[in-house]
Amino acid sequence: MTERLLRALGGLAVVTPFVIGLTAATVDRDGREVFRFQDAEIVESSGLVVEGNLAHTTNDSGDTGRVFTVDMSTGETVGETFWADGPQDVEALAPAGSGQVWVGDIGDNAASRDSIEVTRVPVGRGDRTVSEENFQLVYPDGQRDAEALLVHPVTGRLYVATKGIFGGELYAAPPELADDAPNVLGLVGTTTGIVTDGAFFPDGDHLILRTYTNAVVYSFPALEPVGSFDLPSQEQGEGIAVVSTEAVLVSSEGQQAPVLRVALPEAIPAVLSPTPTPTVSAPDPAASSPSVENLTTEVRDRDAWPWMVGAVALLGGLVVLVRSLRPR
Q1: Which end of the chain is more exposed for a tag (fewer CB within 10 A), N or C?
Q2: Range with top average pLDDT, 89-93, 307-311, 313-317
Q3: Total domain count for the chain?
Q4: If we measure between CA atoms, which residue out of 93, 113, 91, 88 comes closest to residue 182?
């Protein structure tokens, strides 16, 4: 019976984050729309990096390895970087310097991977196919599922935030990545659970982690929470990018999903160092497309069906658990 119980609990653990993601979509919160992804092939945006007036994103697992570059004034894809044929589970992007991003092939829902991978690839306008070097990362204490890859803005060091249900961890990669052997991650500390993305603030002394429903700002490296706030309602919130000391952009899975600007609560900017920050460039006023401000809309309440789907999925998991406990 113990073995059946463990299997049932494992199945419930896998489905729970998706249930939370579905039910979270009905929460009524405010957000301002900056643009919508127009590319029909961007269906599971998972990760967001902003560079000037360009946004970089990638699809979740199931797609070939590619990064989309999107003009934020129109939402149109203006570049694609193809970097791999069959990644296992791409979940995150992180900035890697001008015209480059780190791609995080770090998802592991079944906690079965011997190692995870990160790859630095060029991005920008125009299409390209590249053959880049992969760096292997391994956890020191067993497999983890993760969807957040962060880069320290001063040291350039990589960090992985895991997606535990009841709590996660932040792990640091070695300062210099080896290309001929697995790189063992080091535990920095514990964080909130169900983390779907994260980013450092430019001061390097604070970082932000998002879940499906809220975001938490931590001091670094102490990982002391300095503030938290609710995020706008989204189909399945996956990405976050810091664009100033006063606001972040958040993205979601789904076709033509909007990218929303969320202002930080007043108490949070007050603790951030006044370091110059990247900002969202305004579109050319001579362009025919609407401006970012004109694109701004308030996020509306969504239909109640995600609650129903979530409830059914959770009930199904509980039924499996109960049946597994019956003597045979």
Answers
A1: C
A2: 89-93
A3: 2
A4: 113
**HSE-CB of 130 using CA atoms within 13 angstroms:** 19
Give the tokens for residue 280: 């969202």
Residue 281 neighbours by CB distance under 10 Å: 14
Instruction: Using pLDDT thresholds of 50, 70 and 90, give the confidence band for residue 275.
Output: low
Q: Specify the DSSP element, H or E, that contains 101.
A: strand 100-105
In sequence order, what DSSP letters do the residues of 195-243 get, joined into one string?
--EEEE-TTSSEEEEE-SSEEEEEETTT--EEEEEEPPP-SSEEEEEE-
159 lies in the same domain as 285:
yes
Query: Considering the chain, what is the average pLDDT of its residues?
Result: 82
Pair 112, 11: CB distance under 8 Å: no
Q: Are residues 7 and 57 in the same domain?
A: no
Domain that holds residue 323: 1-26+303-328
- 326 and 194 in a common domain: no
Cis peptide before 285 (omega within 30 of 0): no
| 120 and 193 belong to one structural domain | yes
C-alpha 169/C-alpha 147 separation (Å) is 12
Tell me which H or E stretch contains 148: strand 146-151
Beta strand pairing call for 247-252 and 258-263: antiparallel
Q: Residues 5, 60: one domain?
A: no
* pTM, full prediction: 0.77
pLDDT of residue 161: 98
152 plus 16 within the same structural domain: no
| Same-domain pairing of 194 and 324 | no
d(CA 26, CA 213): 10
Task: Give rounded-to-5 percent helix, strand, coil for the chain.
Answer: 15, 40, 45
* Neighbouring C-alpha atoms within 13 Å toward the C-beta of 285: 0
Query: What's the confidence (pLDDT) of residue 86?
Result: 85
> Sheet of 183-184: strands edge to edge?
92-95, 100-105, 116-122, 134-138, 183-184
Distance of CA 320 to the CA centre of its chain: 30
Output 82 or 17, whichever has higher pLDDT. Answer: 82
